[in-house]
Amino acid sequence: MGTVSQDAINQFKALMDQVEEPLKRTYQTVHQGYQAETLARFLKAREWNVTKAHKMLLDCLNWRVHNEIDNILMKPIVPTDLYRAVRDSHLIGMSGYSREGLPVFAHGVGLSTYDKASVHYYMQSHIQINEYRDRIVLPTASKKYGRPITTGVKVLDMSGLKLSALNQIKMVTLISTIDDLNYPEKTHTYYIVNAPYVFSACWKVVKPLLQERTRKKIQVLSGNGRDELLKIMDYASLPHFCKREGSGSSRHSGYANDNCFSLDHPFHQQLYNYVKQKSLESEPSQPIKQGSFHVDLPEPAVEGMEIAKTIESQMHNFEKRNGVSGPLNGLKINDDSDHRTTHCP
């Protein structure tokens, strides 16, 4: 880390040392003992401008206090069938670790529907996964590997992407905004796999709209990305949709324990049991009640809205040109013709 970066972290730390309760308590929950790494994440998100990063972190801490985020891991989504419905329609899970110890999170972008529960349940579930990652998964990995591990990798499965995905852009934008504002720079690399042609068409126009630091993190892999991903992780840590010999995926795997989206997967079982246990510890004499944990939904950033509108426009144009309204997974990215990996600059 350069001198300029270290100076910025030192200035930022001096400002945060002045924070008082209740922000101080939730700040400790955020950094989990890795204060320098946390400050660096917020500085990166604001181009190393200490003043802007300080405001961003204070806004995040106030959001956490106002919405009682520190308590969200004590609020299970019940009954289990409701949470299973959330898992079946917001496909996300953790499949393992990279060889460097970074947790591998998988996202079924193409097949997620967000149509089985209210927006509040989806936000509650997503934030719980974020908090469990930051409070349990990453600190455990840091202790195991003997060094700070504060980021992970994401594998985004575009299988089954349809033009009807336009209906989900609002939900995806809300989730992205929550992450951008309150969990910045938590992803080391994004790997995109099983991408249909429509994604390629959208990517060409969306890519220039992204900030450079984001573009550098994104790699579009050929087919299901298996060969490239095996360079950074063992076979056991591959998401289930990357383990097939050819490209393509499905919502469900043949084995529940292998499908990292399923509630039956060990990661989701551990998370769900952890939340239920914390709930019983906090209110041992009270029955667990059904009800979503409401979080203030943010106004999407201008950049996010511009990207969403661009995607919508491109997909409509694609539909007009091709008369396509069903799944687009059968159409390959042009770059796949020579089986090379397409890396973003």
From TrEMBL:
Q: Where is the composition biased (Basic and acidic residues)?
A: 333-345
Q: Which residues form the signal peptide?
A: none
**What region holds the CRAL-TRIO domain?**
79-239
Q: Where is this region: Disordered?
A: 320-345
What CDD domains is this protein classified in?
SEC14 (cd00170)
The name this protein carries in UniProt is CRAL-TRIO domain-containing protein
According to its UniProt entry, this protein's organism is Populus trichocarpa (Western balsam poplar)
